[in-house]
Fold:
Amino acid sequence: MPDISKDLVLFNELVEVLLKDEKEHPVADRIESDELYDTIDLSLNESGMVDDDFKAVLKDVIESTPKTATNLFFNQLFGGRQSKAVLGDLLAVMLNNSMYTYKVAGPQVGIEQEIIRKSCDMIGYGARSNGTFPTGGSMSNYMALIMGRDAKDVNFRTAGMSKPMTVYTSKESHYSNAKNASFAGIGRNNIRYIKADSYGRMLPGLLEDQIKKDIEEGYVPTYVNATAGTTVLGAFDPIDEIADITEKYGLWLHVDGAYCGSVIFSEKYKHLVKGVERSDSFSYNAHKMLGTPLTCSIILVKDKRHLHESFSNDADYLYQTDGDDFNLGKTSFQCGRRNDALKFWTLWKSIGTSGLEQIVDQQFELANVALAYIRSNPDYTLYSFDDSISICFNYKNIDPTTLCTALYEHQVTVVGFGAFEEDTFVRLVTINANNEQVDILNFFKVMEEFVENNPSLVGMGETFQEQL
Ligand SMILES: *Cc1c(COP(=O)(O)O)cnc(C)c1O
Structure:
């Protein structure tokens, strides 16, 4: 049997390589996609590799893999590295439990349930609540939709759709809503995209108008997906006003907090999800704002009966001991399920709820640094708003897609672009709580220097402006 301790020594050695490389090259050496297979030896062959060659290949892979934990990675809605969470995830790999039963997961079940119980308390969900850890925010949205569908029509699970259902979300919501409507048998044509206001928040008046219209036309309005932190602008839909409507017409209300639902940990920012206790389900991704390794997504359900009704199936070969409260497979989508809870628990246990609060608050502080910089500099146009960690801007009228691509191709910094209504812009996400004020200012510095050294970009911006 191969000796694991030897591989753990190698692991540590490779991690040292990675950490050193992150300092020296915060943006990875980029390989053109059409040159990938000629650049690193990714081939799988009949015979294995000797240790030294194996190590060399692993180093190559590490050094050319995009570095998401550094202070120049701003491309996605995750970044940085919370070390206590990394520790937990490494332990989860070594323990290798599957979360479906108490028999094979033991205390890991309690760890998952403690996170869920505590989160439910924090949002005011009450004694009947529970939840689970889906594979991500998209899956959380899917599970919420399925529960909303089944709550509306108890026969749906057995007989399929009898009357056409309609579901509602804002134009700015996550794209998983469209896929989920098709997976759930509701149909993409039966999603109603409600217009957002100029801040990117769903307009509740338009939501109610649309529901009334659908009822008149013989549809069954079933489910609303509100967003706490829209993917582009980081906007928060007005939950209380939406809940007034879902309660009035009997629709399921899910709050998709994949991006910014973790504001529940912050005294200062939890007002952004005011009214969340009135929702039927709520999800958040600890791998986004809380910085755990991917993936760590939690869905909370106000009345756990819905989780059981939509997701449980008896399986005698599996559920042989202990009660439902300990056999988590009864309320999950999958059968075998990775332990995503331990990494969040090690983080939470070690730094406390107040530590999680600091992580969240730090991101808004970094956002304020970026906002102040942009507002004080006439070369910038700002498109985003206060209370958002997505800072959307353009610089010197340069085409943002060209600029982001050039910054990436020249390994300057990794940042993405987004669009809202007519505008396209650079989207700087200050989600890495390991960053400090200087890192945000450094981002602007390296970008401005790059533009200065590539004046043709500004020229291209003018053609871009003319095209508009
Ligand atoms: C990221 C995100 C999702 C999807 O979460 P995954 O874990 O990537 O599947 C859903 N909704 C919103 C608002 C998001 O930002």
